[in-house]
C-alpha cells in the first residue's frame, strides 16, 4: 500500500525532521518509488533463515573497566553553538 | 614530475634522499592550487598543517625511524575526523565542526609520517554514488569534467586520478570506494569488515561501513592498507590480528587462479561497452592461465533492496545525534525542545539525507519492521551463504564494478531510484563483509571501465596478490587521464 501524505508527516515527526509541504509531497513520491522496488523481497520464502545483523563473528567485546584520561572539557564543548558554565545548553524540556 | 610517480616510487625517492617530504608536499599542494578549481576534489586544504606534518615526517626519516610510506601525502575523505581540521561530511549540519580528536586511520597516517593534504568532497554523509549530493560543491571527473567521478568517495578518487595526491582514503558502505575508483580509472580497495578501525569515521551504516585506500596501483593500495589497518580497542567491531600485510606482493602468474563469474552480474543491465571490456579482460586473463567458471548467486538480485533497507535503517539511528546541541549550527532559541531539533535538522540536512532518514525510520517503525528490516536481514544472511558456497570453488568473484561508465553531471540526479539501482555489483561485498577491489580494465568511449574482484572474508592479502597479477596482465590498467 502506498504511503499517504499523513504517513509521511508521521514518519518525519518520528525522525525529528521539519518538512514543508513541497518536501512532504516530494518525499511521498520518492518513498513510494523505493517501496515499490522493495516489494521484490516480500515474496521470498524466508522461513528458517536466521536474520543477520552483522558481518563479523565477534561477540561480547568488553573493555576493561578502568579509567583512562579523557578530553579536556573545553575541547568537548568547543564545537557547541551554545554553552554556559562549562555545560551544553539544551532547549527547555520541563517547564517550571 | 614527482606528482606523477606512484606512492611506492615517491617513498623510494625520499628514502634515497633525492627529494624531501616537504618538497613532495609542496609539489602536491601546488598541483591542487593550480588544478582543483576545475575539479572540486577538496573541501578543505590547510597548507601550513600539511607542511608542518611533512617537516615532522622528514625529521623521522632523517633519524631512521620512519615507516615505509613516510613523506608520502594522502587526501582524506571529509567524513574522517581530523584533529584541528574542519570535518563536514559535505553537510551544512557540520559546517564549521573542527574535531577535537583524530580518527584511528588518521592517527596511523600521522604515526607513519604521512602528511594530510586536505579533506575531500563526498556525497553528504557518504549517501550517494556521484558526489553531486555534496552541500558545498560538485566534483568533476578528470577523464571528462562534464561527468561525475562517481561516489561517494569521488573527491579522493578524482584527486588521485588527477595526480593531485598519490594516495587517498575513502569509505565504502555500498561501493563508495570501488565505484568512484572504477569511474576514475584508479584502484580502490575495501578491506574485510573489521580490519580497518571505524573509530572517528562519522557513522553512516555501522554494519557496512569500511575505510580503505584509493591509489593508482594495486601495490600502493596494499601499502596504504598496511598503514591504516590493524586491531583497535576503540572500535568494538575491530578484529584481532587484522593488519593487512603488503610485503608478500610479488609478480606471479595467474596460472591456477580460479575466478567465479556470477551470471547475475553479467546481465544486460550492464552497458554493452562495459561488458565488452570486462569480457576482453577475462580473455586476456584466461591466456595468462586463469580459470573461469560461471556461477549463480540468486540473492544478488535482491541486493539493492536489502541494502536500501539496512543502510538507511542504520543511518536513521546514527544520524539522530545531529540535534544542534554538541556541534554544528543550531536553529533559533526560544522554541520548545523538539521544535529546535526538528528545525536544526531541517536546515542542516540535504534532501537525499532526509529521504534516507525517512525510509530508514519507516522501515524500523511499528508495523513495518518484520516486512522490511527483518526480511532484509534474512536476505543478507542468504546472500552470505551463497557467497560462502561460491568461495568453496574459487579464489575470487570477478565482475564489472559499475554497470555504467562515468555519467554526465546532472544526468541521473533527477531520478534517485535509477541511481540506486546502479549499485548492485558492489553491494554484496558490504552485506557479506568481504574484501573487494576495483581496478581499471579498459575504456569504453574514452572512459574507464572498472573490474571488480571480491574475495573471501579475511583473505585480503590473497585478493591483493590476485589483483596485482591481474593488473600486470592488463595493458590499460595505468593509462593517464587528459590532465596537464
UniProtKB/TrEMBL annotation, chain A:
It comes from the Bacteria. Keywords: ATP-binding, Ligase, Nucleotide-binding, Protein biosynthesis. InterPro entries: Asp/Glu-ADT_sf_sub_c, GatC. Belongs to the GatC family. Allows the formation of correctly charged Asn-tRNA(Asn) or Gln-tRNA(Gln) through the transamidation of misacylated Asp-tRNA(Asn) or Glu-tRNA(Gln) in organisms which lack either or both of asparaginyl-tRNA or glutaminyl-tRNA synthetases. The reaction takes place in the presence of glutamine and ATP through an activated phospho-Asp-tRNA(Asn) or phospho-Glu-tRNA(Gln). One of its GO terms (molecular function) is glutaminyl-tRNA synthase (glutamine-hydrolyzing) activity. Heterotrimer of A, B and C subunits. This is Aspartyl/glutamyl-tRNA(Asn/Gln) amidotransferase subunit C. It is an enzyme of class 6 (ligase). It catalyses: L-aspartyl-tRNA(Asn) + L-glutamine + ATP + H2O = L-asparaginyl-tRNA(Asn) + L-glutamate + ADP + phosphate + 2 H(+); L-glutamyl-tRNA(Gln) + L-glutamine + ATP + H2O = L-glutaminyl-tRNA(Gln) + L-glutamate + ADP + phosphate + H(+). Its EC number is 6.3.5.-. One of its GO terms (biological process) is translation. The gene is gatC. Transmembrane segments: none annotated. Pfam families: GatC.
From TrEMBL, chain B:
Signal peptide: none annotated. InterPro entries: Amidase, Amidase_dom, AS_sf, GatA. GO terms for cellular component: glutamyl-tRNA(Gln) amidotransferase complex. The active site is at 77 (charge relay system), 152 (charge relay system), 176 (acyl-ester intermediate). Keywords: ATP-binding, Ligase, Nucleotide-binding, Protein biosynthesis. Gene3D superfamilies: Amidase signature (AS) domain. Allows the formation of correctly charged Gln-tRNA(Gln) through the transamidation of misacylated Glu-tRNA(Gln) in organisms which lack glutaminyl-tRNA synthetase. The reaction takes place in the presence of glutamine and ATP through an activated gamma-phospho-Glu-tRNA(Gln). Heterotrimer of A, B and C subunits. Belongs to the amidase family. GatA subfamily. NCBIfam families: gatA. This is Glutamyl-tRNA(Gln) amidotransferase subunit A. It comes from Fimbriimonas ginsengisoli.
Amino acid at each position: 500500500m502506498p504511503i499517504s501524505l499523513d504517513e509521511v508527516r508521521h514518519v518525519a515527526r518520528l525522525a525529528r525532521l521539519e518538512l514543508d509541504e513541497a518536501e512532504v509531497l516530494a518525499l511521498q513520491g520518492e518513498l513510494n518509488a523505493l517501496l515499490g522496488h522493495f516489494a521484490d523481497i516480500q515474496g521470498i520464502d524466508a522461513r528458517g533463515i536466521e536474520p543477520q545483523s552483522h558481518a563479523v563473528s565477534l561477540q561480547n567485546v568488553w573493555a576493561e573497566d578502568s579509567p583512562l584520561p579523557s578530553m579536556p572539557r573545553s575541547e568537548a564543548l568547543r564545537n557547541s553553538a551554545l554553552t554556559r558554565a562549562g555545560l551544553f545548553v539544551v532547549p527547555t524540556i520541563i517547564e517550571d | 614530475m614527482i606528482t606523477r610517480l606512484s606512492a611506492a616510487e615517491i617513498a623510494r625517492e625520499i628514502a634515497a634522499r633525492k627529494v624531501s617530504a616537504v618538497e613532495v608536499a609542496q609539489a602536491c599542494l601546488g598541483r591542487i592550487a593550480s588544478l582543483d578549481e576545475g575539479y572540486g576534489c577538496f573541501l578543505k586544504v590547510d597548507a601550513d598543517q600539511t607542511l608542518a606534518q611533512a617537516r615532522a615526517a622528514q625529521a623521522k626519516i632523517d633519524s631512521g625511524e620512519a615507516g615505509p610510506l613516510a613523506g608520502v601525502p594522502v587526501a582524506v575523505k571529509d567524513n574522517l575526523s581530523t584533529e584541528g581540521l574542519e570535518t563536514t561530511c559535505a553537510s551544512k549540519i557540520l559546517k564549521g565542526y573542527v574535531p577535537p580528536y583524530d580518527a584511528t586511520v588518521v592517527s596511523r597516517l600521522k604515526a607513519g609520517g604521512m602528511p594530510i593534504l586536505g579533506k575531500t568532497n563526498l556525497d553528504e554523509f557518504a549517501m550517494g554514488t556521484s558526489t553531486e549530493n555534496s552541500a558545498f560543491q560538485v566534483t568533476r571527473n578528470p577523464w571528462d569534467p562534464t561527468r561525475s567521478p562517481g561516489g561517494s568517495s569521488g573527491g579522493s578518487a578524482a584527486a588521485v586520478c588527477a595526480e593531485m595526491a598519490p594516495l587517498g582514503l575513502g569509505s565504502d558502505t555500498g561501493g563508495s570506494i570501488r565505484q568512484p575508483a572504477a569511474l576514475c580509472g584508479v584502484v580502490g580497495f575495501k578491506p574485510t569488515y573489521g580490519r580497518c578501525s571505524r573509530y572517528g569515521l562519522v557513522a553512516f551504516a555501522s554494519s557496512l561501513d569500511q575505510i580503505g585506500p584509493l591509489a593508482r596501483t594495486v601495490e600502493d593500495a596494499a601499502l596504504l592498507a598496511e598503514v591504516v589497518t590493524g586491531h583497535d580497542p576503540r572500535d568494538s567491531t575491530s578484529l584481532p590480528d587484522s593488519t593487512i600485510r603488503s610485503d608478500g606482493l610479488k609478480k606471479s602468474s595467474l596460472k591456477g587462479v580460479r575466478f567465479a563469474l556470477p551470471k547475475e552480474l553479467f546481465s544486460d543491465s550492464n552497458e554493452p561497452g562495459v561488458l565488452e571490456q570486462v569480457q576482453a579482460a577475462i580473455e586476456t586473463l584466461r591466456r595468462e592461465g586463469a580459470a573461469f567458471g560461471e556461477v549463480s548467486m540468486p540473492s544478488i538480485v535482491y541486493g539493492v533492496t536489502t541494502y536500501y533497507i539496512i543502510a538507511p535503517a542504520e543511518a536513521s539511528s546514527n544520524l539522530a545525534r545531529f540535534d544542534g546541541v554538541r556541534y554544528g549550527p543550531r536553529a533559533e532559541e526560544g522554541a520548545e525542545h523538539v521544535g529546535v531539533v526538528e528545525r536544526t535538522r531541517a536546515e542542516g540536512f540535504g534532501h537525499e539525507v532526509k529521504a534516507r532518514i525517512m525510509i530508514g525510520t519507516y522501515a524500523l517503525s511499528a508495523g513495518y519492521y518484520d516486512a522490511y528490516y527483518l526480511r532484509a536481514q534474512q536476505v543478507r544472511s542468504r546472500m552470505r551463504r551463497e557467497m560462502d558456497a561460491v568461495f568453496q570453488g574459487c579464489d575470487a568473484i570477478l565482475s564489472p564494478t559499475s554497470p555504467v561508465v562515468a555519467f554526465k553531471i546532472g544526468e541521473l540526479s533527477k531520478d534517485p531510484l535509477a541511481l540506486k539501482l546502479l549499485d548492485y555489483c558492489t553491494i554484496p561485498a558490504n552485506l557479506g563483509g568481504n574484501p573487494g577491489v576495483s581496478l581499471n580494465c579498459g575504456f569504453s568511449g574514452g572512459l574507464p571501465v572498472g573490474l571488480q574482484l571480491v574475495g573471501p572474508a579475511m583473505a585480503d592479502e590473497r585478493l591483493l596478490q590476485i589483483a596485482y597479477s591481474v593488473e600486470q596482465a592488463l595493458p590499460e590498467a595505468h593509462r593517464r587521464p587528459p590532465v596537464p
